[in-house]
TrEMBL record:
CDD domains: TM_PBP2 (cd06261). It comes from the Bacteria. This is Putative hydroxymethylpyrimidine transport system permease protein. It comes from Oceanobacillus limi. The chain crosses the membrane at residues 12-35, 55-80, 92-117, 123-142, 176-199, 219-240.
Length: 251
């Protein structure tokens, strides 16, 4: 209990020190449109709570959740396909790797040209940025099952279906959750980039609008919300992992 309490207090104390330092530095510089203080950002969040929480936050969440859902569906599907077919592995794996060498900031305007300012231009960016960790981690997890256990199951008369569900899937689940933890944080970045470059609503769109008005606190307020969304999604994945992997021994 004491160790858990200390593990919580240490980061909380560090965050508190950083916020106090930021507050002092912002008040000393006194240029709110460039460096607003944490208290100014908090006041702006309270002032804009209606439009941020009921207009722009739902729009961003829709982009994030839609992109993540599609990434999970396609990522798991292609990982299973590559694991079961050498031809699929040779065909898809280089393309998956290549997709991450292109800067997302360069592709986002192209998606806007293709899909306009609709939901799908932003989902495409989020999908592209979250697809890689889910696919690669799941694929590596499927391949991580021990060969001697597979041979033992085969000698006991297990079918390919039995090997997949009773050996490969349990081996892949921890890897899948590792990829999902990375993907949920990247999804927030992808949605913000897409909304920044072309959108009619969303936290990234609102942050850009506030920048054009030289409102520093207004720029930081949606960024704080984006960070909280990323943290909340990450914690949800951790909770889901603990529920579904109770059989896994943890230190």
């Amino acid at each position: 209990m004491i160790q858990k309490r200390n593990s919580f207090l240490a980061p909380a104390l560090l965050v508190f020190i950083l916020l106090v330092t930021w507050e002092i530095a912002a008040r000393f510089i006194a240029i709110a449109f460039i460096l607003p203080s944490p208290t100014q950002v908090a006041m702006k969040l309270w002032e804009l709570k209606a439009i941020l929480f009921f207009v722009h936050l739902p729009a961003t969440l829709l982009v994030i959740l839609t992109g993540l859902l599609l990434s999970i569906i396609f990522g798991i599907g292609i990982a299973i396909w590559m694991n079961g077919s050498k031809i699929a592995e040779k065909a898809f794996y280089p393309i998956i790797i290549s997709s991450q060498t292109i800067p997302i900031i360069a592709l986002a305007p192209i998606f806007v040209l293709w899909f306009g300012y609709s939901l799908w231009s932003k989902v495409a960016v989020t999908l592209l940025i979250t697809f890689f960790p889910i696919t690669v981690n799941t694929y590596d997890g499927l391949r991580s099952s021990r060969q001697e256990i597979k041979e033992l199951l085969l000698t006991m008369g297990a079918s390919k279906r039995d090997i997949f569900f009773k050996l490969q899937v349990p081996s892949a689940l921890p890897h899948f959750y590792s990829g999902l933890k990375v993907a949920v944080t990247l999804s927030v970045i992808g949605a913000a980039i897409a909304e920044w470059l072309g959108a009619q609503a969303g936290l990234g769109f609102f942050s850009r609008r506030m920048m054009n008005q030289f409102d520093g606190a207004g720029v930081f307020a949606p960024i704080v919300l984006l960070s909280l969304v990323g943290i909340a999604l990450f914690l949800m994945v951790i909770a889901l992992e603990k529920i579904t992997l109770k059989w896994r021994k943890t230190k």
